[in-house]
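Quarterly update, task 2.4: NAP-bound model.
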Amino acid sequence: MAGPGQKVLFILGGGPRIGHAVAKKFLSQGYKVAIGRRNTDKTDVDGALPVHVDVTKPETIEAAFQEVESKLGVPNAVVYNAAALTFPPDKDPFAVDPAAFSRDLEINVGGAYAALHHATRLARRHNNPPLVYIATGNVTPFQAHPLAVTLGPGKSALAHLISVGTIAYDAKEFRLYFASQVTDEGGPVPYPQVSGEAHGEAYWKLMNEEGHDWDVRFSVASDGSPRFA
Ligand SMILES: NC(=O)c1ccc[n+]([C@@H]2O[C@H](COP(=O)([O-])OP(=O)(O)OC[C@H]3O[C@@H](n4cnc5c(N)ncnc54)[C@H](OP(=O)(O)O)[C@@H]3O)[C@@H](O)[C@H]2O)c1
């Protein structure tokens, strides 16, 4: 269990890059951290609790929240980081198998909704405000790309959910962000240039600073720190 005043972060879809970097940042600041993913044997962040979750299976998301609550406490922060992309054959977006499209959509937004549901119910049941929910985003909701045909629709729906929550709830109770690393020009970031450490710093600021819009875009400065747009 978390000690008195000790806060809890739960990351869904936490792997070696963004997930682990965010976990390390919050652990270094005194948080208890749970990392949810399918392959918990690969969760190798010292001090973090590995939790089995497959975001395509809503019952595992509910069970994962119960496990985090019982072992660490009610989460104050939730990061939804899982995503999936199927590249279209021959760069033909509608050549993607419909079953692959559905599976990717479930990972990109279906699981995120289940996490919003359980995180907000749990916070309300325990009268534990504020809850901060950060969805790892990208620019696909704002700049369509044919190669992102299975990713963009899910991220767009996820951005919509975050904006809905921002309208519906008082920020003193729930703060929600769709946080996207962008290039200096505001465009998509090539995968090798995605910085886990900058995400960790950016998410820590979102946790602790009020007044950010739900649509958060940041580039990475030459010293590696996030620069908010
Ligand atoms: N800003 C940009 O332009 C940009 C660019 C690239 C990526 N991104 C975003 O960054 C995020 C990914 O970051 P990353 O690559 O650094 O990730 P990461 O934290 O290194 O790993 C993500 C983890 O998600 C887990 N995962 C995948 N499917 C899952 C499922 N069905 N259930 C539970 N967990 C699942 C995988 O672990 P298991 O295999 O163990 O489940 C994977 O290791 C995504 O949201 C992506 O859209 C943004």
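Highlight for this quarter: The pocket of NAP is lined by residues 13-19, 37-39, 42, 53-56, 81-83, 107, 136, 138, 180-181, 188-189, 191, 194, 196 (CB under 6 Å).
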